[in-house]
Design a protein that fits this description.
alpha+beta, 13 helices, elongated, 701 residues, 7-stranded antiparallel β-sheet, 6-stranded antiparallel β-sheet, Calpain_domain_III, 32% strand, protease
Length: 701
């Protein structure tokens, strides 16, 4: 029975176009969505909740770039016409595709799946986190990310596109060409990686990642495609789960140090963390965790509870589990915060409370256990209560799928994506590699990006990413740069590059990771992000992504001062630059009927106005607002006026008039508010604190 038929369109302002879709839903069947023109490929989704995940970001409309120019469709067609199996010239079956230098594991034989079993398949009984087992590589980080991916249909169908078409078809064996393709998100775009199906084996067994079922090959093939992208299999020996999660989703990974908070001591802090983890999980994000190893000897050391240090675990479920049985469970409604994980080794580990066969499960009804999929199997997957999780695990990675879809019922983010480079030049005004803020003389020579926060307070997500250099490790160039960024609160009308450090309101950590992330609450105002390498004079490319509640109009500041134009001769050119910093006002007159006021300040110079946000219900507003003026007429005065915000008409509260001369070296002015005009004794209630900084060198501020 058909329950619904939809025709809808998605407006794509970022591409100045729109996409039209049909959707149909049949009882107990997947929600089927397809584009009107067939230009965007969408598979049926087994979980209707995954429908919004397909539209969760604008990247689905982006073109996919073929890696090394290899086009899957044309290569497969060529092999089918020649009745030959594909042999990848870019990633050949040689030791160089396995190792950086010398062979470390002995004789390797490359075999196709048909040589390893009679009936190979991509998937056997669907895709599952249980399909993956780590092989002879230290890539538990990658396998853990794959386990998380396997639990999200909408996501793995992006990584494994048109999987039904790629599956072995015994009815049309002549169509099989020994070629596959997979997609990964790298440095701002989806990359399509083509591979042949020859896999490294020893003694007739797969050496690296493999499945429970000997005839299931999706995990081994995805691993090979990822190894090709990274240069060789050995490039996967040791890595960062956060990077793999981003590569699988195009999302943003937030590493969290669980030792920094009070999660083990304070229930409230622990509950807040659980709600954050639950929200990421329910909105389709991927999660990983680990127990930090502090020494080399600690790596893969097993704790008494069965958990392993220095080992990446995939989080496969996050739930609030109802305790009790029968009607008691329904009416009492006591719930326990629970989290489920999987060990990439596929072996039983956790032996504490809520482990597979523990007594605690008797507190949960049979129907609840079935809903949770609780099994007593040595499959490496296990449940823990969140309190124990915080007790043992030290590191957590939340990979958010940043929702930029206008169709979603969930929170929608506005995204700005900026590409840039750190490049070293001897000329300070052209240099773009100044190092971190420790190097104060050169820090502001880095690239600068300005954006606005227009809400009273906004949560901003910022991710800085550098190019993955693992593929260059064979040439001794595989080390990442230590990167990070600072956020400076600047003048509300700043449109040229900063030349003096202002107010730092946030900083990321500096680490030689592929990406760094910061989540920050910022109040209304204008801000500049300065992405940097830790040390000066280093060079490289970067990708900066900024997510805000409302459009932030992010752009790079490229000019150091107002440009000279053909009109400069007749209109003049600035002789001075003045920064005005209005700190606060005290003792303002209560103009509202409730005995208070809602003041804001306007700063004016040579016809340009800068207006601060309104401060509610206060006679002592802490304005903390700046403006910068490039002044062609140095003798013109600077006006600072305070108004009270009203529904019908704002009322004047007083003003201050300053000259902003070069000779004014007073660091802080505290002056009485005055009325407009030149009348005598025109003082009004209130004092205003203002700082001025004026220079005749336009690149000093």
């Amino acid at each position: 029975m058909v329950t619904g038929f939809l025709y809808f369109w998605v407006n794509c302002p970022f591409k100045n176009t729109s996409a039209h879709f049909y959707a149909i839903h049949i009882v107990n069947q997947p929600l089927l969505v397809w584009p009107q023109d067939g230009s965007i490929e969408l598979n049926a989704l087994n979980n209707p909740q995954d429908a919004h995940a397909v539209f969760s970001d604008r990247s689905m409309f982006s073109s996919v770039k073929p890696y090394e120019g290899q086009q899957f469709a044309s290569l497969r067609k060529q092999c089918q016409q020649n009745r030959s199996l594909f042999e990848d010239p870019v990633f050949p079956v040689v030791d160089q595709s396995l190792f950086y230098a010398a062979n470390r594991i002995g004789k390797v034989t490359w075999k196709r799946p048909k040589e390893l079993c009679d009936d190979p398949h991509l998937f056997v009984n669907g895709i599952s986190a249980h399909d993956l087992h780590q092989g002879q590589l230290g890539n538990c980080w990658f396998v853990a990310a794959c386990s998380s991916l396997a639990s999200r249909e909408a996501l793995w169908q992006k990584v494994i596109p048109d999987w039904k078409d790629q599956e072995w078809d015994n009815q049309k064996a002549e169509n099989y060409a020994g070629i596959f393709h997979f997609r990964f998100w790298r440095f701002g775009e989806w990359v399509d990686v083509v591979i042949d199906d020859r896999l490294p084996t020893a003694n007739g067994q797969l050496i690296y990642c493999h499945s429970n079922d000997s005839n299931e090959f999706w995990s081994a093939l995805v691993e090979k495609a990822y190894a090709k992208l990274c240069g060789c299999y050995e490039a996967l020996d040791g890595g960062n789960t956060a990077d793999a999660l981003v590569d699988f989703t195009g999302g943003v990974s937030e590493p969290m140090d669980l030792l920094e908070g009070k999660n083990t001591q304070e229930e409230e802090a622990r509950n807040q963390l659980f709600e954050r983890v639950l929200k990421v999980h329910t909105r389709g994000g991927l999660i990983s965790c680990s127990i930090r190893a502090t020494t080399q000897a600690d790596m893969e050391a097993r704790l008494d509870c069965g958990l392993v240090k220095g080992h990446a675990y995939a989080v496969t479920d996050v739930r609030k589990v109802r305790l009790g049985t029968g009607l008691l469970a329904f009416f009492k409604s006591e719930k326990l915060s629970m989290i489920r994980m999987r060990n990439p080794w596929g072996q039983k580990e956790w032996n504490g409370a809520w482990s597979d066969s523990s007594e605690e499960w008797k507190r949960v009804s049979k129907s609840e256990r079935e809903k949770l999929g609780v099994t007593v199997e040595d499959d490496g997957e296990f449940w823990m209560n969140f309190e124990d999780f915080c007790k043992y695990f030290t590191d957590l990675i939340l990979c958010r799928l940043i929702n930029t879809s206008y169709l979603s019922i969930h929170k929608t983010w506005e995204e700005d994506v900026m590409r840039g480079s750190w490049s070293h030049q001897d000329d300070p005004l052209r240099n773009r590699s100044g190092g971190c803020i420790n190097h104060k003389a050169t820090f502001l020579q880095n690239p600068q990006y300005v954006f606005d926060v227009t809400n009273a307070e906004d949560e901003v997500l910022i991710c800085l990413q550098q190019q993955d250099k693992r593929a260059q490790s064979k040439d001794g160039k595989g080390e990442n740069l230590a990167i990070g960024f600072d956020i400076q609160r600047v003048e509300l009308n700043r449109k040229y590059r900063m030349h003096s450090i202002q107010k730092t309101v946030g900083s990321s950590t500096y680490i030689n990771s592929r990406s760094v992330f910061l989540r920050k609450e910022l109040k209304e105002g204008r801000y500049v992000i300065v992405p940097t390498t830790f040390d000066p004079s280093l060079q490289g490319d970067f990708l900066l992504r900024i997510f805000t509640d409302v459009p932030a109009t992010c752009k790079e500041l490229t000019l150091d001062e107002p440009p000279q134009t053909c009109w400069t001769g007749c209109c003049g050119y600035p002789k001075l630059v003045t920064q005005v910093h209005v700190h606060r006002a005290d003792g303002l007159k209560a103009q509202d009927s409730d005995g208070s006021c809602d003041p804001y300040v306007i700063i004016m110079c040579e016809g340009e106005k800068v207006c601060s946000p309104v401060h509610k219900n206060t006679q002592t507003p802490d304005f903390d607002v700046k403006a910068v003026f490039y002044r062609k007429k140095p003798r013109e005065q600077i006006f600072i006026r305070i108004y009270n915000h009203n529904i019908l008409k704002d009322s004047f509260m007083g003003q201050v008039v300053l000259t902003g001369d070069l000779s004014d070296l007073q660091p802080l002015h505290t002056v009485h508010l005055r009325d407009k005009g030149n009348r005598q004794n025109n003082d009004l209630p209130g004092l205003l604190s203002v700082s001025l900084n004026t220079s005749d060198v336009l690149t000093n501020i």
